[in-house]
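Today's session is about reading a structure prediction critically. Students often jump straight to the picture, but the first step is always the sequence itself: look for stretches that repeat, for charged clusters, for runs of hydrophobic residues. Only then move on to the predicted structure, which in these notes is written as discrete structure tokens rather than atom positions. Here is the chain we will use throughout the hour.
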Amino acid sequence: MQQVLLLFLLLAGLRSCSSQTNSQDGKIPVSTNSDPGLDKLVKANHFHFSENQLTGTMNESLFNAKMNLIHVIFDNNNFTGAIPESLGLVQTLQIIRLDHNQFNGPVPKSIGNLPNLTELSLASNQLSGTVPDLTNATNLTYVDTSNNDFASSPAPRWLSTLTSLNTIFMENDHLNGTIPSALFSLPQMQQISLAKNALTGTLDMSGIISSQLRVVNLTNNQIAATRVNPSYTNSLMQPIEKGKYIVREIRTAVDQYDQEYYGLKSLIDPAIRDSAKLVGFRRFLQLAMECVEESGVDRPTMNDVVKELEIIMQNEGGQLLDSAYLSTEHFGNEISRDPQEEHLPMKDDSSSSSVFDYNSVYSYSAVEPKDLSFNAGLGGPLPAAIGNLRQLTTLHFNKNRLTGNLTGLFNSSMILEHILFDNNQLSGRIPAELSDITTLEIIRLDKNNFTGEVPSNISNLINLNVLNLANNQLSGIMLDLSSLNTLNVV
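Below is the predicted structure for this chain, in token form.
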């Protein structure tokens, strides 16, 4: 690691020093009488070293007032010791990310005086002392100090005064007392999470609420009562009566063998429960539980949620798959079928064909959008016969254990709009034939093992809205997507 960094130091005008998401290890070098260190890079704007295996302490001499750093990003490493007070000397700093390390001791007071600081993430360390005073960091928009060893203290006053704040995470920070009501009226505020503290009293959201506020998470506190402005209709996760928590209560009551109510009959509003058969309720509940997972990486994206809801609603309306001869019985040695799939014709048990069996006695042209996502037991390769489904508009096979490649699966006669194969174990090249399907709006192939170059003709998909190829082993040059005016997520 040190030899690599010293090569950077030879570049006198270096503006950015980046080695993110690699396996760099060792200590960060600082200057000695005989050797230069990172502290000599006074013209650098960016120190990006997140998600490596860097160790040791950060020397006080690493930072100085001559530096022009904008970003100091060292999250997800193995640093120990104190955060250097000298970090507060770099007045140009806008982003500091030191989260997910093993820093200890108090947070340097100088950090709270950085005039240009917009993002501060110190979460998941072993920091002690008091919660940092950020009163003078008036440009802050994002703060995360969660999961440290701070001393028990009331919610800091700056929560009510930093008008640029849009996101605040202070989970498990040993906060006590009442929550300042002015926090909810900060004009830019979008997300507040003060979960796992010892906050008490009445939650007062009866005044003016920021029009931007979308999520308030106050679970695992000791709040006795709430007053909420009726105009606020977004997510409010808070304790319910008798100290119970809604998510915990549901998870405790769930009975997967109850095919109709999933063990929640007593918790469902009778007006809903008794009005009609709850078709799709099981999958809807599973989706809801995924949306409130504690870790953000375990929650589905908004695109996934919308598409899943569309599929549930479609099934409830009776537009079920009744013409495709499909079976999942050989996936992961699963023999039983999901109740969601009961409209699919079963394959003869004596058959020894592949896991998916598209039999010619069924009409391919009548097949409706197909979703087999979130089935941990689904594995093996996909058959090329899927390419015969000319009227198929949706392929949802995300979050399974599919293997093999996609060769021969797609052709220009298909009218697919959504291809979701993310979170599998697919490999090989992304087929160029994918770009022949001009109706495509969403392509998600992320979190697989695809290799090689991205087909350049994907840029011809004029209807494409979402393209996600992250977390693969793709190589070659960056794809030119300048011609895709409809893209909104890449």
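Discussion point for the tutorial: The helical segments are 2-9, 246-253, 270-273, 281-291, 302-316.
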